[in-house]
Amino acid sequence: MVAVKVSQLRVVRGGREVLHGIDCSLPEGTITGLIGPSGQGKSTLMRSIMGVQIVKSGEVTVLGRPAGHPELRHRIGYAPQSPALYGDLTVTENLRYFASVLQAPRSAIDRAIRELSLEDCRHQVAASLSGGQRSRASLAIAFLGDPELLVLDEPTVGLDPVLRHDLWGIFHQLAESGTTLVVSSHVMDEANRCQRLLLLRDGNILADDTPEGLRQRTGAEDLEQAFLSLIQERQAHHNRPSQRQGPSQQGLVQS
Amino acid sequence: MNASVTLSTARRVLGQLRHDRRTAAMVLIMPAVLMVLLRYVFDSQRQFERIAPALLGILAFLVMFMVTSVATLRERTGGTLERLMTTPAGRFDLLSGYAIAFSLLAVAQVALAVGVSLTWLGLEITGSTVMVFVVAALDAVLGTALGLFVSAFARTEFQAMQFMPVVVLPQALVCGLFTPREDMNQVLTWFSDAMPLSYAVDAMNKVTRSSEFTQSLWVSLAVIVGSLFVSLVLGAATLRRRTP
């Protein structure tokens, strides 16, 4: 079963096309890594899957419905890149509010706090949390409604290695129980933990493969190398036939 | 509509205020403090009584406008609105939650300002006290509704603050506080007639001076309630699930 299907998706943000008609499909119960430096369209793709992004053209189908369909709102969980929390509420109060919006049971709050090791700061206001604690609290909210699809934008930034390891353990457990996860990252060692990788570059999908498949295809030892050789291959291919199109990377544009 | 989302949103907004004691205290106390200041600035009971009802209405409107526009703006820019838009929460659920929470705050604020004015400051009213509370609270809720709406046009808190001079001060100048509305030149009278705050002030003046329900009082009240709902609907229209 396919959980998410994206076809010919084009998105324009701030007058610039950030996704140039991409296609991909994510099988149910897998962890897909969206890999690439920032500003390449990862967050835009995630927002499109969540149905909060205005798209120019193309289709996004999520769990059999068009993205943004009201019925999906109970079935998907989202942790945006900047931890969206109420800074003047405690962690528990934040969770309680979103739980009531999602009609999740009380027990979901305690479970999320336990799973994300938030016990020590549960009564702290979000504004006073450390960066890592804040992104964990934001993840906890995404977990609340027991969603079938979890879209997590850079969930492990600023976490210590032990926590990061634990978190990936949870992601794998969820996937085994049938949850589909989309996780963005720019850390290559995390790419290894995904079952599938989408490499986004300049608003195009440069690769869509398993980590193993990528290594074999490029003959590279590690994924960093594999990506590098893919990028070089693509650039060589681009530069040869056409005139130079100028620098393709426009630095400052944030995803 | 989902009543449980509305109520938990109202509870959440009040919870935020409870943690932000400084804002809550200022919102509650400032109008009362300003009334005291005004009383002694005039140092004349007669002059104070002439201007106090109008000012009660304006202050309630002003303070709630500011608090609401900044609070909603923070929701928009902080990512929590986008997050809510991926959940089953509807925009009217959220707006009504906001409106309920801020209206409760407004009622408390008005109770304090009117209470201080009527007792300590010796403001004498010939109308009904209950109606003074009701109209002042309506003025405050109107400020809340307008604040919800204009917050859509600010990207930063700096810009939201600028809506004070842009949206509120012109209304305050022409609402009859400084000079009777009918004495202004024709263009300004038209302008004044088009502004909701003029009716808020008119209604305050009327209910403090007479307990009669005149037709013009009903008109003022209808305009206040009407603008309040129009602002709420416009505010809801600015809450989009999909954004660029």
How would you summarize what this structure contains?
The complex is a heterodimer of chains A (255) and B (244). With 255 residues, chain A is of the alpha/beta class.
Q: How would you describe this structure to a colleague?
A:
Chain B: Residues 14-242 form the ABC transmembrane type-2 domain. Chain B: This is Transport permease protein. Chain B: It is found in: Cell membrane. Chain B: Pfam families: ABC2_membrane. The complex is a heterodimer of chains A (255) and B (244). With 255 residues, chain A is α/β, with parallel strands linked by helices. Chain A has 8 helices and 10 strands. In chain A, helix 7 (211-218) packs across helix 8. Chain B starts with a helix and ends in a 6-residue tail after the last helix. Chain B is globular, with a radius of gyration of 18 Å. Helices cover 79% and strands 0% of the residues of chain B.
Layout of strands and helices, then pairs:
The complex is a heterodimer of chains A (255) and B (244).
Chain A: E1 2-13, E2 16-27, E3 31-35, H1 42-50, E4 57-62, E5 65-66, E6 76-79, H2 91-102, H3 106-115, H4 131-143, E7 149-152, H5 161-176, E8 180-185, H6 188-191, E9 196-201, E10 204-209, H7 211-218, H8 223-239
Helix pairs in contact in A: 2-3, 3-4, 7-8
Chain B: H1 3-19, H2 21-42, H3 45-77, H4 80-85, H5 91-118, H6 129-150, H7 157-174, H8 186-194, H9 196-209, H10 215-238
The CATH homologous superfamily of the largest domain in chain A is termed P-loop containing nucleotide triphosphate hydrolases
Report the order of strands and helices of chain A: EEEHEEEHHHEHEHEEHH
Number of domains of chain B: 1
> What is the H/E order of chain B?
HHHHHHHHHH
Number of strands of chain A: 10
Total E-strand runs of chain B: 0
Percent of residues of chain B in helical segments?
over 70%
Give the helix level of chain A as a range of percent: 25-40%
